[in-house]
Amino acid sequence: MRSIRDLANAEALDTAKGAGSYTEKGVVRFAADGTIDTYDMKPNDRLVIATSDQSDGVCIIYLPPMSQAIGKFYGVLAPTGAAAGDVSVYDRDGATHSEIGSGGDLDADADFSLFYCDGTTWRVIFTTV
């Protein structure tokens, strides 16, 4: 079993500018290359490795709808958060589409958050933020 850090550094993971690229089951590498880029996680995604090459850019990762994510875990890793733009994790459900607590603001190198959907809310299970 490979660690999260191994996945982040694996050469086998291709980078897709502005879009997710499935390179390993459930793992998406997302490279934001604009001022604001977004990625909508699919129910079968398990880990998004998000980078931004804009120092003032914003990368927003939307977790899947709760109705499709009940009982599942989702991870977001920002390997270069301090050197580039902010990576934020948002809740797609509800009227506000809000950032998920402090665990949803990944802005330092190697920030990682693990989220769990219990069907009523997203829970931050673990975060390095």
Molecular structure report:
This protein has helices at residues 4-9, 66-69, and strands spanning 16-17, 21-24, 27-32, 36-40, 47-52, 58-62, 73-78, 86-90, 105-106, 111-117, 122-127. With 129 residues, it is mainly beta. It has one domain (4-8, 19-85, 92-127). The strands form two sheets. Strands 1, 2, 3, 5, 7, 10 and 11 form a seven-stranded mixed β-sheet that branches. The chain has a four-stranded mixed β-sheet with strand order 4-6-8-9, with no helix packed on it. 35% of the residues are buried. Residues 7-22 have low confidence and may be disordered.
In a nutshell, what does this entry contain?
This protein is mainly beta. The chain has helices at residues 4-9, 66-69, and strands spanning 16-17, 21-24, 27-32, 36-40, 47-52, 58-62, 73-78, 86-90, 105-106, 111-117, 122-127. The two termini are 24 Å apart.
Q: What is the structural class?
A: mainly beta
Q: How many helical elements?
A: 2
The biggest beta sheet reads: 7 strands, mixed
Overall radius of gyration: 13 Å
Q: What is the first-to-last residue Cα distance?
A: 24 Å
Mean pLDDT: 76
Count of discrete structural domains: 1
Oligomer: single chain
Helix content: under 10%
pLDDT under 50 segments (min length 5)? 7-22
The beta-strand count equals 11
Strand content: 35-45%
Shape: globular
What string, H for helix and E for strand, traces the elements in order? Answer: HEEEEEEHEEEEE
